Each structure stands twice: as structure tokens, then as C-alpha cells.
């Protein structure tokens, strides 16, 4: 039991770090002009698609790590539930934020300023918990096959 709890915690922390690193790299590679729509802080379609892929791949890695640490059992399922529930809880505040139509100046924008001002369609944050939970389950199954 303790091994499963540790597996879930460690895997979630690893996923958090990987997501942060991946989105940092994505912003550095795309830059403001490709991460946002022209003249605004609205996320571009390219950014959203890459974010879905990153989220899914990181979730698979997290599920695999969880299964390896737990050495079997239901730990990946528990991690999938944690990812889903916490993801939904973190998505709810996005409904309460007013959509400001801030004009984005041309050129580079520091990443932390971009993170603060970025706007995405309201449905996007609610898809990440679903994609994440599915990815964790896929990663957990990969370990069982190997």
C-alpha cells in the first residue's frame, strides 16, 4: 500500500516537472508570434495542438513510472483519478476569469508575462484532465506488457 501511495506521489511530481519543462521548451521554440494569435494573447491553434500532445505524452510517462514504482496493482488507476480530479479542480477557476482583449505588442514577450496574459478557449482546460487520465492509464498498461 505504501509503495502505491509513493508511486502516485512521485509520478505526479514527475509529471508536473515534465509539463513545466515541456511548456517552457514549447514557448522557446515557438516564440510569441506562433504561441499566440496575431496581435492578441489568445493561444494559437498550433499551441493548443502541441499542448494536447505534450499532455498526453507526459501522462503516458507518468503512468509508466507509477506502474514501475508500484510493481503492479491499481496505482496507475489511482494516479489517473488524481490527475482527473485535480485537473478539473484547477480548470474551474478558468471559468471565472474575465476574457480581456489585451493587444499583444509585436516581438518577443518574456515567458512569465506571456503565461500571465495568455487566454485559451474555455473548453481547453477541461480537456487536459481527460487526456491526462487516459494517458496515465495507457502508460500503466505499457508497463504490464513489458
Description:
This protein has 146 residues and is an all-alpha fold. It has helices spanning 2-35, 45-70, 75-91, 93-96, 111-117, 124-145. Helix 1 (2-35) packs antiparallel against helix 2, helix 1 crosses helix 3 (75-91) and helix 3 (75-91) packs antiparallel against helix 6. The longest helix has 34 residues, at 2-35. The radius of gyration is 17 Å and the shape is elongated. The chain starts with a helix and ends with a helix.
**Which runs of at least 5 residues are low in confidence (pLDDT < 50)?**
none
Distance N to C terminus = 22 Å
What is the share of helical residues?
A: over 70%
Mean pLDDT rating = 88
Shape: elongated
What layout of secondary structure does this protein have?
Layout: H1 2-35, H2 45-70, H3 75-91, H4 93-96, H5 111-117, H6 124-145
Summarize the structure.
The protein has helices spanning 2-35, 45-70, 75-91, 93-96, 111-117, 124-145.
List keywords for this structure.
0% strand
Amino acid at each position: 500500500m505504501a509503495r502505491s501511495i509513493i508511486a502516485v506521489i512521485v509520478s505526479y511530481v514527475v509529471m508536473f516537472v515534465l509539463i513545466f519543462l515541456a511548456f517552457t521548451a514549447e514557448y522557446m521554440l515557438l516564440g510569441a508570434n506562433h504561441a499566440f494569435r496575431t496581435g492578441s494573447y489568445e493561444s494559437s491553434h498550433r499551441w493548443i495542438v502541441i499542448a494536447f500532445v505534450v499532455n498526453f505524452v507526459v501522462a503516458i510517462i507518468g503512468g509508466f513510472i507509477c506502474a514501475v514504482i508500484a510493481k503492479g496493482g491499481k496505482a496507475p488507476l489511482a494516479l489517473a483519478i488524481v490527475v482527473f480530479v485535480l485537473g478539473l479542480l484547477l480548470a474551474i477557476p478558468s471559468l471565472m476569469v474575465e476574457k480581456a482583449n489585451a493587444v499583444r505588442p509585436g516581438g518577443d514577450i518574456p515567458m512569465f508575462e506571456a503565461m500571465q496574459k495568455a487566454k485559451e478557449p474555455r473548453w481547453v482546460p477541461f480537456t487536459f484532465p481527460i487526456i491526462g487520465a487516459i494517458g496515465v492509464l495507457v502508460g500503466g498498461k505499457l508497463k504490464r506488457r513489458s
